[in-house]
């Protein structure tokens, strides 16, 4: 547990730092970071599938290979940060930001509070996107069974993939692939304008009750009826949720520092990263309560 806490804390600091750095960059570079995060999720899923298929039945070797590759990726990321700090484009953007802010490098709590009062809606948009997604993914989605539920038993399983790969393919690969698609779409167009983007972002909340209407069976039972019974409709719903997550996570992060004066772009970048992490944390925390409605 301590290892998990340390790893996630380090990841939070690293992620916040990266978004803080690119906060003063043009918006397409902000989307590059978001897209990179989603591609990372896709690569991790493909790596998981490869290790499971290659080292079937040997969990120790499976885990050793999996985490060894992750360690190599972390070392590569560390090296890339040192390279970034010497990159000419990075130095140029930092020089512009410093000239605008009169070489001010440290922000006080008052600066953060003032900035939040002025730009709370874009920050709330970032939080909302990640809250809805992490409330559903992966805990709720992994507990959606085939209908009728006896089909989800290993002996009666009739979905056209291996039983042991069902959750990985149906949920993780589906989610990560379409999240990447959504993030990449934000490179080509952004819709709607910053003034109205809160509307589609908040419409994503409808995914929560929609997935409750599927055969979501936490703890092996539910008291509700099952109104969305076809697993392929569920697959499409997951894909739509994932595309909208990828697209609007990118758009929300790109819109957050846009239109603000250069001296505040970096602080907005840092605050956006904070609300991203806050949305993830809140979504995961509330997902522990997700089973209560269907158990009433």
Describe the model.
There is one protein chain. The protein is mostly helical. It has one domain (2-295). It contains twelve helices and no strands. α7 (166-188) runs parallel beside α10 (231-255). The protein is globular. It starts with a helix and ends with a helix. The mean pLDDT is 88.
**Count of discrete alpha- or pi-helical segments spanning 4 or more residues:** 12
Please state the CA-atom Rg, rounded to the nearest Å: 21 Å
Give the uncertain stretches in residue-range form.
none
**Span between termini:** 32 Å
Biggest pleated-sheet summary: none
Count of the domains: 1
Calculate the mean pLDDT score and round it: 88
SSE sequence, one letter per element:
HHHHHHHHHHHH
Number of strands: 0
Subcellular location: Membrane
Family: Belongs to the SLC29A/ENT transporter (TC 2.A.57) family.
Protein name: Nucleoside transporter
Pfam families: Nucleoside_tran
Write the layout of secondary structure elements.
Elements: H1 2-22, H2 27-54, H3 59-84, H4 88-100, H5 109-136, H6 139-142, H7 166-188, H8 198-203, H9 207-212, H10 231-255, H11 262-287, H12 292-295
Helix pairs in contact: 1-11, 2-3, 2-7, 2-10, 4-11, 5-10, 5-11, 7-10
């Amino acid at each position: 547990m301590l290892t998990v806490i340390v790893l996630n804390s380090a990841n939070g600091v690293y992620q916040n730092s990266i978004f803080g750095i690119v906060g003063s960059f043009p918006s397409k570079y902000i989307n590059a970071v978001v897209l990179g995060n989603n591609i990372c999720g896709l690569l991790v899923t493909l790596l998981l599938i490869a290790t499971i298929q290659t080292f079937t039945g040997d969990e120790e070797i499976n885990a050793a290979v999996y985490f060894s590759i992750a360690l190599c990726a972390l070392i590569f990321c560390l090296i890339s940060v040192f390279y970034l700090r010497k990159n000419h484009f990075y130095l140029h953007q930092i020089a512009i930001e410093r000239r605008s802010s009169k070489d001010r490098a440290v922000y006080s709590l008052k600066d953060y509070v003032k900035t939040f009062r002025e730009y709370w809606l874009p920050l709330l948009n970032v939080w909302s996107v990640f809250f809805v997604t992490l409330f559903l993914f992966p805990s709720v989605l992994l507990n959606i069974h085939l209908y009728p539920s006896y089909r989800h038993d290993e002996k009666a399983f009739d979905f056209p993939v291996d039983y042991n790969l069902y959750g990985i393919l149906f949920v993780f690969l589906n989610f990560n692939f379409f999240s990447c698609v959504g993030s990449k779409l934000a490179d080509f167009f952004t819709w709607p304008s910053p003034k109205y983007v809160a509307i589609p972002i908040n419409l994503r909340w409808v995914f929560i009750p929609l997935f409750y209407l599927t055969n979501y069976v936490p703890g092996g039972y539910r008291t509700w009826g099952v109104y969305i019974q076809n697993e392929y409709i569920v697959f499409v719903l997951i894909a739509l949720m994932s595309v909208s997550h990828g697209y609007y996570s990118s758009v929300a992060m790109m819109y957050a520092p846009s239109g603000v004066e250069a001296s505040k772009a970096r602080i907005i970048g840092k605050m956006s990263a904070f609300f991203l992490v806050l949305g993830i944390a809140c979504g995961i925390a509330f997902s522990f309560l997700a089973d209560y409605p269907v158990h009433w």
